[in-house]
Amino acid sequence: MLLLALESSCDETAVAILRGEPGQPAEILSSEIASQIELHRQYGGVVPEVASRNHSLHLRPLVEQALAHAGVAINEVDVFAATSGPGLASSLLIGATAAKAMAAAAGKPFLAVNHLEGHLLSPFVGTGVVPPHLGLIVSGGHTLLLDVAAPGKYRKLGGTRDDAAGEAFDKVGKMLGLPYPGGPEIEKMARGGRCDAFNFPRSMMKEPGFDFSFSGLKTAVLYTLSQRNPETGTPLPDELADLCASFQEAVIEVLVKKTLKAARHTGRKIIALSGGVSLNKALREAFAKACGREGIELALASPGLCTDNAAMIGFAALQHAFHGKSSPLDGDINPNLSLVAAD
Ligand code: KG4
Ligand code: ZN
After folding, report:
1. Strand 270-274 to 133-138 pairing
2. Which atom of ligand 1 is the closest one to the Cα of 9?
3. What average pLDDT does the structure give for the chain?
4. Which chain residues have CB less than 5 Å from ligand 2, an ion?
5. Ligand 1: which of 31, 139, 218, 284 to mutate, judged by most atoms within 8 Å of the beta carbon?
6. What is the reported pLDDT for 161?
7. Ligand 1 pocket check: which of 169, 273, 306, 337 to mutate, most ligand atoms within 8 Å of Cβ?
8. What is the per-residue burial (b if ≥16 Cβ within 10 Å, else e) of 119-140?
9. Cβ 147 under 6 angstroms from ligand 1
10. In ligand 1, which atom is closest to the CA atom of 138?
């Protein structure tokens, strides 16, 4: 099955072409991304209007590039897929409308894909088989812990009550005067710092259940900054690395402990990490150590599949296309689309 997938839910325009067969590793024939990070950096975050204009500017050349790199003609494509939510409405519309138009013109099926399902299943692109597991999505917009019985069979165990993990990295990065997005910048700075220099809070560790909260941690960093440097509220240069390391450690400890607690609770023997924050090496190492101790297998997406991309959307679409599913052309995008009934 040859599938063309589009992703335009936030600030990355992406197109991928995949060849897949049930139970086989998906072959990514091409995966193109036009990143808008540089464009939004000057505003310190994503500006929706700028994002959607750039999606419409880049999408068509990117589709042509993806077809050329894959060595595929558009009339060979069997299914057209696109992210239909969650995300920015004006951004989602561009990719979803383009995929529907291509499907209608080619007389082929269209598949609407949940962006979170793309992240969730991304650690299994390489094997092509999604085993029962515990999935932790840690991205800029979401922190979601799910019990996965099979593709499409998801049960929410926990989520964030306020900020997503990536959002906390980005907001704290901004407070510390680091460029957008804060996640990779904090990771870089943290390498030279002591993670026990500041005792930041680990929220919701004692509560039952598996929910997260990161806004208290963000406020604790802000409070520390205003105490250390009342004049400007910016960090003292020689404390920046320690602040980054201590903040990062607080996020990691909560994510690891809660997820391992959920693994013990559900009896799942595989934990899969996905989303932009799962690129963080300290997070990967902490999970690897904890999983190793408890005899749990850790599944990680390859780095190119962690941040937003269309290959993960294509892989999720393939899992549904294999079962003959398709979506109506008059279906709408949904900026608040849920992956499970109660998230
Ligand atoms: O999955 P993603 O590309 O977009 C969403 O769907 O939200 O994730 C982007 C997020 C940003 O918040 C970014 O700061 C974070 O992932 N991120 C990181 C790292 N690389 C990206 N956070 C921590 N450490 C990193 N190395
Ligand atoms: Zn994402």
Report:
1. parallel
2. 6
3. 95
4. 139, 308
5. 139
6. 96
7. 169
8. bbbbbbbbebebeebbbbbbbb
9. no
10. 1
- Closest ligand by atom to 188 CA: 1
Give residues with Cβ within 8 angstroms of 144, minimum separation 6: 116, 135, 136, 137, 156, 158, 159, 160, 339, 343
- Identify the three-state secondary structure at position 11: coil
Residue among 192, 278, 287 nearest 241 (CA): 192
d(CA 92, CA 85): 7
pLDDT in tens, 127-157: 999 999 999 999 999 999 999 999 999 999 9
pLDDT tier, 339 (very low <50, low <70, confident <90, very high otherwise): very high
The residue whose CA is least distant from atom 21 of ligand 1 is: 276
Contact criterion met (CB below 8 Å) for 196 and 186:
no
> What's the predicted TM-score (pTM) here?
0.95
Shortest-distance ligand to the CA of residue 12: 1
Q: pLDDT tens-digit profile of 48-71?
A: 888 889 999 999 999 999 999 999
Q: Name the 3-class secondary structure at 148.
A: strand
CA angle 126, 144, 168 (to 5 degrees): 105
The CATH code belonging to domain 2-125+305-321 is: 3.30.420.40
Burial class of residue 285, CB neighbours in 10 A (0-12, 13-18, 19+):
exposed
Q: Is the CB of 169 under 6 A from ligand 1?
A: yes
From-to residues of CATH 3.30.420.40 in the chain = 2-125+305-321, 133-300
Q: How far is the CA of 181 from the centre of ligand 1 (A)?
A: 7
* Pick among 2.130.10.120, 3.40.50.2000, 3.30.420.40, 1.10.10.10: CATH of 133-300: 3.30.420.40
Instruction: Evaluate whether 9 touches 86 at the Cβ level (below 8 Å).
Output: yes
Phi-psi region of 324 (alpha: psi -120 to 50; beta: other; left: phi over 0): left
Is the CB of residue 11 below 6 angstroms from any atom belonging to ligand 1? no
- Atom index in ligand 1 nearest the CA of residue 182 equals 14
